[in-house]
Amino acid sequence: MIEITGLTKRYGDFYALNDLHLTLGDGVVFGFVGANGAGKSTTFSILATLLSPTSGDALINGKSVVREPAAVRKEIGYMPDFFGVYDQLKVDEYLDFYGASYNLKASERKKLIPELLALVNLTDKRYEYVDLLSRGMKQRLCLARALIHDPNVLILDEPASGLDPRARVEMRDIIHRLKDLGKTVLISSHILPELAEMCDEIGVIDNGTLIAHGNVAQIQAELQGDAHIFVELSYGLEEARAFFERNPLVSAMFVDHAAMQLQFSFSGTKVEQTELLREAMLADLAITSFTEQKKDLEDVFMAITKGADLA
Amino acid sequence: MMDKLYNPMLMKEMKLRFRSFKSFSGLLFYLAVLCIFITGFVLIATDFKGHGYIEPTMSYGLFVLLSIVQMALVMFITPGVTAGAISSEREKQTLNILLTTTQSSAQLIIGKLLSSIAFIVLMLVAGLPIYSLVFLFGGVSPSQMITTFAFYFVTLVAIGSIGIFFSTITKKTIVAMIATYGAMIFLGAITAFLFFVSMIMTQSGVAPIVGGYLAYLFAAINPGALIITLTTPELTQVFQEMTGVTLPVWITYLAFYSTITVCCLTGAIKKLRTNMKTQR
């Protein structure tokens, strides 16, 4: 369980994070999306006890990141966006070191290391030097490291950045397995569709402010805005244009004479959209196609972050 | 019991250090320098004939020379070993991960310091067979040798602490290295220069009492002066008459370097998680 209340981080007059409020239940995979510099890493650094907030607090399983950072560290597994490894350690020595750093006994570490390597598909790399691993393998090893003390909350800052498509799919599968294990996972990314595939909830942050929060479908519906309608005709383009322009819900008309096509924004409901089409048919317009173009997640993200910038 | 005494940082550092070629080459350099000095000394003592004899007094001179050379090497090598302790973790982007583990700042800093000390102690021990050549010729007691090594240890712990402190408060290893070598130049060279200035003040009668105290102070924090007073007791007596201070130099030296160690380690421990200050 994570409860963030009024979390703010200010550097002089600049707000890296502004009054963030967020509550996440157990076993939720939460995606934090925003452009570079939006405040994702600042939020994660505060939750990982690496940075103190200017004001506000966050409770992780009831422990405050401000007042009880040492207790919070036992509850979380943190994977930063950029990290290095110790080149002259072998994979099992690397995990053993971090296990010992969480005060796990030698016998526990010996038992855990093969289990974690199996979870992240690195069993066959156990006795290899860490610097010989590929970037994707290092990411998975770092994830195994974050899991070594069996934390309830995982904070993964851009875990798929710089990975090739196959490594991304592997990372996504591992995150699904972590969800099945009941872990609360916070993932950040600046690619909304990537997060939509693996998250239950998504938060969109821009300029340090959370501008949307909910499940993927909710956010898409909330932020979709006006419908964008495409109408194709076999003839009578100007007549059709005049017809649609008379409707008060239609705006931003664009006429493509070569393609015999009209494009416009429609601010009405689905029922009103149906009514518009029915009236157009009754008016004997030679319509061959009437479609609403859905915005994809990337468009939604671009639209809302641009909107926040303008605000 | 073993689990409680286990310092993961120390064990990890030992593994990394002893797997690195740099450590091997450092050890080789150290032993080579000692060998060069001993060979040079023996050649000079035998008039480059390759045969002859060495008097016990000359053997004692070799001991003093080796002690000073070894102290200089400790002062030269320790900053290189310790000044990158924390800043290199920061540069390699491994520090943030370490700071989110349940290891305390003290455990991290002490682990780093102990691993550096262990390496330099290994160097000192590796040099012992060369150093022990002085026993072949007589004139040096084992207790003098043990005392000298004890003060090497005090010095290297203090210098190591200075290195770790600078490594913690600076972001770049190169800056920490320059700052630590700067401190070494102050302790080794500037204090020696100030000592001579103070002695001139005393002997010329400008400020005989204050000059005497200052000369004592500068000598008492200079590692070279300490080695001379430890290995040459008759000079100690002359020095006490000149400065007017009868307190043995080694006591002030021990107090000063212990204070440096405590202050630097405390500072490093406090500064390690500096971004995670408690809210006001």
UniProtKB/TrEMBL annotation, chain A:
CDD domains: ABC_DR_subfamily_A (cd03230). SUPFAM superfamilies: P-loop containing nucleoside triphosphate hydrolases. The keyword Nucleotide-binding applies. Residues 2-232 form the ABC transporter domain. GO terms for molecular function: ATP binding; ATP hydrolysis activity. InterPro entries: AAA+_ATPase, ABC_transporter-like_ATP-bd, P-loop_NTPase. Keywords: ATP-binding, Nucleotide-binding, Transport. It holds the Pfam family ABC_tran. Belongs to the ABC transporter superfamily. This is ABC transporter ATP-binding protein. It comes from Metalysinibacillus jejuensis.
